[in-house]
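the three lines:
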Amino acid sequence: MSETGAKRLAIIASHGTLDLAYPPFILATAAAAMDIESAIFFTFYGLNILKKDHIDKLQVAPLANPAMPMPVPNAIGVLPGMTAMATSMMNGMMEKANVAKLSELLEMAIEMDVRLIGCQMTMDVMGIKREDLITDIEIGGAATFLEFASHDAITLSF
Amino acid sequence: MSETGAKRLAIIASHGTLDLAYPPFILATAAAAMDIESAIFFTFYGLNILKKDHIDKLQVAPLANPAMPMPVPNAIGVLPGMTAMATSMMNGMMEKANVAKLSELLEMAIEMDVRLIGCQMTMDVMGIKREDLITDIEIGGAATFLEFASHDAITLSF
Amino acid sequence: MSETGAKRLAIIASHGTLDLAYPPFILATAAAAMDIESAIFFTFYGLNILKKDHIDKLQVAPLANPAMPMPVPNAIGVLPGMTAMATSMMNGMMEKANVAKLSELLEMAIEMDVRLIGCQMTMDVMGIKREDLITDIEIGGAATFLEFASHDAITLSF
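prediction for all of em together
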C-alpha cells in the first residue's frame, strides 16, 4: 500500500436485516467522502437490500441476541408482532439520533459512485430476477468482488 | 500491493451453519482459480465444518432472520422439525440452481491447494479431537492465520 | 505491503454476545504479540463490550444456531433460563480449556496498546454516555476506523 493509505474499500453484505444493512452503507459513504473508491457486494440474504422499494422495510428480530438494546426474553421475542415492534423501535432510535434512513444512505452511495454489485448466484438460487432489483447496480459474481478487492483495499464482511 | 492485485485470500469461518459455510468455500475456490493463494481458518462454531462426514449435514434455522427466503413467523420457526425443513429447502434451492454441495466445494478446495486450518483453541474448548476432523487439513492458531494474512491478502470473516 | 507483512490489524466488533466478543480480543492480542499494531472498533451491539463492569456478563443464546456445541431444540432454547444456562456452559468450557476470561483479554489488550475505539454514532443511537463506558478507550467514528485501516492492515469484522 502507498504511504497515503488504501485506495479502496470492498465490503460483502451477506445479511439482509435492518441492523446489519447499516454498517456497509455507513462505511462505504464515509470512505467515498475520504476519496476511497468503494464497492459493496450483496450476496445471500444481503441481496434483499437491493430489492425495489424494500430497503426501508428491512426488519430485525428481537431474538437470540442478548446484546440488543432493551432485550426481551426469547420466549417473548418469538411472539407474533415482536419483530415489527423491534424494527419500529430501532428505526425510531436511528431517527431520534438523526441517522439517515437506509434509503437515503443508498441514494447517497449511488451519488458518490459507490459500486453496488448484486450476486448473480444468489439471484439464481433465490429466484430473484433483474427487474426485482433496483436499477443503479451491476450484477456480478465472486470474481467481480475479488478483482475489485485485490487492489489495495480495506476488505470487510457483514 | 503489486499492480496486479493481492496475492492471497485469508478467510475466517466462525459459523457452522449451512448458509454461512458457503461464502468461504465459494470465495476461496474462485480466488484459487484466479491464482490467488487462499486459506480458510475454521474457528468456534466454524470448526464443525471440518468434522468427518459432517459438512453436508450442516443446518440452518428459520429463526431470528427476517431476511430469509420464504420467512416463517418466529413462533412457527421454533417448532420441532422447522430447522430440518429450512435446511432441506435451502439445499433444494442450491441444487436447483446447480450450485455444488458443500462436500464438493470442500473437495475442490483441497484439490486447488486451499489451506484449510482448524483452530487448536477451539478443539481444546469444545473437546474436539484430531481424529474427529477430516485428514486434509492442518491445525493452527491465531498466529498461523495472522502470519498468512499479513502478506498482501484480502481478509474476510464469515 | 512490505515483504515482512502487514503492520496493522483493524477489527470491527459489531456483536455484543459472549461468543462473538472472543475473536476480536484473541486476534488483537495475538497480533500485538507479533508486533502488529492493532485496533478494535466497537459499534452497534458490539459497544456493549466496552460498558463498565459488563464484559464478563456477556451472554449467548442457545437459539437459531444449529452449530452450537450440545445444541438444544429451538423450542427448548427459547425457554426462560436457557440463555443463562448456555452462557454458563460456554464460560465453563472456556475456563476448563484455560482460555482467559474476556475481562482478562481486555486488560491484556489495554496493556499491549491495542487501540479500543467506541463508536460515537452508536452512543448517540443507543443513548450510551461516555461515563457508561470504561476509561481506557477512545471515541471515534467510521472515519477513525477507516483512517487506521487504510495503512497496510489486515481488516476483519465480527
